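new request in #modeling-help
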Amino acid sequence: MTRRPRDAGFRDAASRTVLNGGVLEIDVEVAFRDNRAAANMTAPPAGIAYKLGAHCLLAGTARQREGRTTVSEDAGPAIEVRIGPGGIDDALRAAEVASGLGADRVGVSTPLIYAHGLEIIAKIRRQTRDVPILSNLTIHDGCFRFLAESRRHGAEVGTVSAIHNHAGCRQGVRARLATGIRVLADMTCIATADLPRQAREIEAIGMDGLVVSLGHDPARYDTARRESDGVAAVVDAVSMPVGCVVTSLEEAHAAGEQGADWLILEGSSFGAAAADLESAIAEIRARAYPRRRRAQPARTY
Amino acid sequence: MERTPFPPRPWAQAAIDTFDLESAMPIARMAMACGVDWLEVGSPLIYGEGFRAIAALKEIAGERAVVVDYKARDNCHMLFCEARKHGGDFATVCAAGNDFGVIEALRARSDCGIGVLADIYGLDTHEIPLRTMELAAMGVDAVCIHFGNDQNAYDRVRQQYDGMREAKRAAPSTPVSCSADTLLNAIGACKQGADWVYFGADLLSSAEPGKYAPLRTYVETVHAFRSRAATSV
């Protein structure tokens, strides 16, 4: 499976790929050396792969192996581990565990930012080094400023609350153009039946992806709704990457089977011990999800 | 711990919208010196500095109320209780399409005594009265009409106080506020029956000496509507 290269640098890298049973391997070191655009980047391989093809990264997985990043179309969903509320030391430890376990991205939860300020992102950045960081701002107003600040503190990705907030989403896209931060729409509080329509609108605005999230407060009262509800409908409705927040392995599998491009594991929900999270990640990696997302051309940003 | 009660209406709430405490503190002191009734830990400040910003501004506000402008959508119980623990008197919940978040915020009020301000950011003007009525029925302490900066970037027609009169008609006994970043907007809001206005923008962008006079004028103008409000009652 090949992708339309999104720019000269990516084309150059793609020309050196090895098609191996549908797995697209990009030798990032080669791409880095030969690509003038990439030569200005100082980020380590995962970060470079992310910049070269964020869509690919989210649609598949990117794993670092001795300086080589493999972007695989046939692998399962990428995994983000989100660090929940707690003290700074706990958060740093959790981030270290998550990156050590091979998470594709570390997410900084909204309550964690509220508790310690955006500086927590910079601290986690120092702890995780190569792993991209998501700042889960779920911001409503002033989106440009908040996303720019998140980028300044080291986050590669930020979120905007999507409900009743097209203006904020548009400002998010403006922030991406100005700072390079990837911007995702958080769909918390949007009814399941309304998700596909809203997702199409979000895609039209030009966001980088969207996150299907039930939310803790709705989950407390709307016990009939599952975290993975609506993922399949959203995946069918849009061509952008679709993520899903899950708090259990069962929901992770359900979202994966519905075609989620990446799974957001609420770290604390998978048990306090690193072994619990490790086994959850291993099981998700090992699982062959039957539903594959259809091939999409790379997006031009 | 008793929560600070509502001041005589209309009152003025100063939003401290910087990302760091170092620049926030002098602006907060200036706002207090100019007579604002409520001090707001703006979203940038709470995102930038975390909970410690609440305690820092409460120290400056003293007996006057501190509002924590989370615009929380999820985890509302925990966030509201934390705000109270750090000295906040009120906190905002994003109330557009978020009944569960509002319920959780109200649960926090029962547990810790914090006041619940329902921010209806994102709603179109015609949606405001019904939602205000619903939120009043749910038992929130007050409703904030919020036409934000991002919306304003794409809608140059709507005024910040649009919908105020209709909201007050829909829920006469519930205090309703709106953002009013200019003196003209504040006057418009008060004329339409706003119980209070909240503002930031240029008036509170720094604590330079030249900022005191316009800020004092703004607050005095809002307070001047008190006699009118008393007569209309």
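bot summary: The interface with chain B takes residues 85, 110-111, 113-120, 137-146, 149, 161, 163-165, 167-168, 170-171, 188-190, 215-218, 220-222 of chain A (CB under 8 Å).
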